[in-house]
TetR/AcrR family transcriptional regulator
Amino acid sequence: MPDAHPKTGESRPESARDRLIAAGVEAFAAKGFHGTTTRDISSAAGMSPAALYVHYKSKEELLYQISRTGHEATLQLLRESRASSDDPAEQLLAAVREFVAHHARGHTRARIVNYELSALSAEHYEEIRAIRRAINQEMRQIVESGVARGMFHTPNARMTALALLSLGVDVARWYRDEGEWSHQDIADHYCELALRMVGARA
Amino acid sequence: MPDAHPKTGESRPESARDRLIAAGVEAFAAKGFHGTTTRDISSAAGMSPAALYVHYKSKEELLYQISRTGHEATLQLLRESRASSDDPAEQLLAAVREFVAHHARGHTRARIVNYELSALSAEHYEEIRAIRRAINQEMRQIVESGVARGMFHTPNARMTALALLSLGVDVARWYRDEGEWSHQDIADHYCELALRMVGARA
DNA sequence: ACGGGGTAACTAAGCGCTTGCTTATGTCAG
DNA sequence: CTGACATAAGCAAGCGCTTAGTTACCCCGT
């Protein structure tokens, strides 16, 4: 909303900010933050190098915007999954299905979200860490509520919750668009794995 | 073996090559290949920038040596686990325990092995990919042999094997030395998770 | 209808610095 | 003397980012 265009409204093809974000996502995911130059990004967005600085203070701020919106989308996805039912097993299935599909479909963005944290400034990193803690807590509460109701059986609910997230995050590392499994196939199989991991079959 | 020292034998504190490797591991893991300068590496190894080129052709060749030995160690670990027993369940437990402990204890090296592949040259990348395929196959054969003997029950043995490796690899991403769980704790819990994932309790 | 003034987006050129790597030279054990 | 190892100095190229200037478009008093 900071760049809502006063007159063109919806017919505008794509804002310069968005094109820079899209170019940054591709480049950072492919070559990493430090392996990407501001010239890579701006030329992929069809601009001169200086144009990047009209819209973002620095290369790092572009990374931060990508990372922040990516983390917030992931957190929201887990919150909605947990709110979708009162049954922990249903919550778990929704969370795993959405989380895995999100990391497969958006593997490019997800790689930046999960593997480029060390390129953030100290302040930005702290902000992102807070979102990551909230993400962990969502999954933990699903598993712990299932254990509390006697529906799940695991000797260490926190580590199991971490393993579930870990499994989903790593999909972004190995997933390929040309692969033989669709993100649906993967999400379905991972739902089955998740039920087994939490010990849902008493 | 290319730099076996003729006389000092075992009392030699550490060769220059090894110090460069150690410095490279730390730097690459902390800031990534492109975020690390040759001056970072050489000064951490207590040498001038030019000394790196006495021992390695380029910064990329140093990365390659780290990546190759790391991959080979991982492959060997899985081969030994599989050879340690005829029982697929025993093989699985040995493989998961060793693989997870290896990725926790050696998380610094493991991060380079798994997250810095795109910085390798095309030729080196192909060589590493071959080792990675062999690693996948080891785990796959454990799971498939368990299914073939009716001891494991999973609808997609290949995806389950991939998930097991994925779970272990991702330990290197989140593991911290200061964390409250030792690598033994994690390995034990992950063994339990692995048995559930493959459906070992018929 | 018109022109002056303000604003936002963008570029060409380039600054100061750092990069990976090389060269010339020295040192020292065998 | 030789050869392996190290360094000081530095090169060409590339880096993130800045500056000065141009263009396009808005509002608004006359």
